[in-house]
Amino acid sequence: xAVATPYTPSLFLDCNMESGELCALWxxxxxxxxxxxxxxxxxxxxxxxxxxxxxxxxxxxVADGLGGSRAGEQASSLALSSLQDxxxxxxxxxxxxxxxxxxxxxxxxxxxxxxGIGAGTTLALVEIQGRTARPYHVGDAMILVVGQRGRIKxxxxxxxxxxxxxxxxxxxxxxxxHHDERHIVSNMLGMADMRIEIGSTIELxxxxxxxxxxxxxxxxxxxxxxxxxxxxxxxxxxxRDLATTCRERMQTPRxxxxxxxxxxxxxxxxxGGSNRDQENARH
Length: 283
Known about the structure:
The structure is a single chain. This protein is an alpha+beta fold. 33% of the residues lie in helices and 29% in strands. It is built from 8 helices and 14 strands. It is globular and about 55 Å long. It starts with a strand and ends with a helix.
């Protein structure tokens, strides 16, 4: 697994990774994986970013572009570059991180609308400030916080009819995985009435794992399968296991298992982390 330098912005655009990238970041470690769908040769419309604000804070971002081929790729790329510019401007002018995030998302939305090509992107973003996290999301990209014992401490509700049906109890999660309207999204960047959902501040424990992902992950693994894989083991092993299992299911459908070929992108972040996580990310 490749290793990135800490405290420098890292944008992952149109990637087709064989393995992920591990980075020492703030008080923890982040593993990033992004690969295009196995059934296409066009661009990976997903994108991801690790963008520091200072030595103790910054953002993790996953964007899942919509609109097909170059339109989706343009939208997800614009989302990340707009956030990076807004963060740099805020840091230079002494503005706060939350304002930078909101300004970046709103600027990205305006630019995507102005493309006029039907492009859009969902967005999963987490603000990290020391040992606390705050989620922001638009659309059906997922944010999950899992404790070491497997307890889900936070999970986003997808901005979609199916996501709202699951949240209200009208549809169970297993049925939702195979619902015909699962991928109808009611909110995304690229819409004039786009809205940003901001979650509460979450206190992270040392062995909590924070996961942001495009729907390529949650379409191929049930939530309980994801939880079991992310709650333990070094982050490089977590990333490898998630990526390998998803790719196997995309390429070899089996009865009783979900399978949907798609671009796959995720970030797993862990505060503190095991000695192996920290050592791998430093060297």
